[in-house]
Design a protein that fits this description.
Length: 396
């Protein structure tokens, strides 16, 4: 048997409600004691006050010990006939109230068994001391019906409370799921912004460093070359500031961001990217196999950033002045390779965020990236990115 009654402190309104229920039950008990066996009315005898006081005194305990309160109120009802009183629904009002509380706080099957047993005891106690007539039988039916009806109402209240608790639990789970999804999206956005900032800063600062080195090297011997490098350095840092301002500006917007002023970079801007590396002193050759195809924006940005980061690593770590970029277009994928012949170690001073970022970008679009030293010397970055079906293949 499961008792779900609470034992914690109750608010003041609860005590007022309990006092009103107890006073009402006491008044009903006294009213039931007024009716005599011969259907006449008279002042309630002392036995009526005894039954009313004892049965109503345990009513406040029905929340903590409903089974005990039901046993006491039933026992008081069984004393009605032996004390010469008339058993009516009024005089067993405390038992009816306790039956409701028992059904609310106890398992359905156990509560039904207890209520049926208590009702049978009330009816049997009267039949042992009073000769039952047809009129008495109808009154006994009413006495038996009231606790049972109270039990049914209690079961309905229990079901309603269980339903509301289930609805609240589902709402809490849904809220928790929304919070988890929001945290996941925030984490993904942080990673995306960190990746963009890394690619931006690594690329632009590497070019600026190379241009400043050239300007310092030719400052005395070749002033014109130094002046040209400084001019390119100003342009590079200006572009870096513009891109950095645009990226960081996204973090300051609380609502939906407006449409960008220009599209995200892609392979269409590859010549401009390679020209920036050439101005920094890195000769880059490009070779394409197959027929180039337009790429979706996300895939196009991924391909561009991988080439950008790979060439940035060549400028920083390879110790060579040349690199080769190759794009091989197949029916279902494009393979991008960036190779150099340098003797430097791309992992000696770099903490590895560049390679991690490239792998994350490739994986995010369903591709694969590998990087490592070549047996013949130098370093190779190779990635395979899946291509969407061509229009001629998608039409059927």
């Amino acid at each position: 048997m499961t008792n779900t009654g609470g034992g914690g402190p109750r608010p003041p309104g609860t005590w007022l409600r309990e006092a009103a229920i107890t006073a009402t039950a006491f008044a009903l008990c006294l009213a039931g004691g007024v009716i005599r066996l011969d259907d006449t009315l008279s002042a309630p005898p002392a036995s009526t006050y005894l039954i009313a006081v004892v049965s109503c005194a345990v009513l406040p305990l029905r929340h903590r010990t409903p089974l005990g309160a039901m046993a006491i109120t039933t026992a008081c009802g069984m004393l009605v006939a032996p004390l010469g009183l008339l058993l009516t629904p009024l005089i067993v009002a405390p038992a009816v109230i306790t039956a409701y509380s028992l059904a609310v706080r106890t398992d359905r099957r156990a509560a039904s068994a207890v209520l049926l047993t208590c009702t049978a005891l009330l009816v049997a106690s009267t039949s042992l001391f009073v000769a039952i007539s047809w009129q008495d039988a109808s009154r006994m039916g009413a006495v038996a019906a009231f606790p049972l009806v109270a039990g049914v109402l209690g079961h309905s209240t229990q079901n309603r409370r269980a339903y509301l608790a289930a609805v609240e639990e589902r709402a809490q789970r849904a809220e928790h799921s929304r919070d988890s999804e929001a945290r996941r999206r925030v984490a993904e956005e942080r990673v995306r912004i960190a990746r963009e900032l890394h690619d931006l800063v690594a690329h632009q600062i590497t070019l600026a460093n190379a241009q400043a080195t050239v300007a310092a090297h030719f400052f005395d011997s070749r002033p014109e070359q130094s002046r040209k490098s400084l001019t390119e350095l100003v342009e590079t840092t200006s572009n870096a500031l513009d891109e950095l301002r645009a990226t960081v500006g996204l973090l300051r917007q609380s609502g939906d961001t407006a449409a960008p002023a220009e599209p995200a970079p892609g392979l269409a801007r590859l010549p401009t990217l390679l020209e920036s590396f050439r101005r920094a002193g890195l000769e880059v050759s490009v070779h394409q196999d197959g027929t180039p195809r337009p790429l979706p924006p996300g895939l196009d940005l991924t391909a561009y950033r991988i080439v950008q980061e790979a060439l940035t690593n060549v400028t920083k770590h390879a110790g060579t002045g040349s690199a080769r970029v190759r794009l091989a277009w197949n029916r279902d994928r494009v393979t991008i390779t960036v190779a150099d012949d340098g003797a430097g170690d791309t992992t000696s001073t770099d903490p590895g965020y560049g390679l991690i970022g490239m792998r994350e970008r490739a994986t995010a679009v369903g591709g694969h990236l590998s990087a490592g030293r070549r047996p013949e010397g130098g370093f190779l970055v190779s990635t395979q990115l899946p291509l969407p079906p061509a229009r001629s293949e998608a039409a059927p």
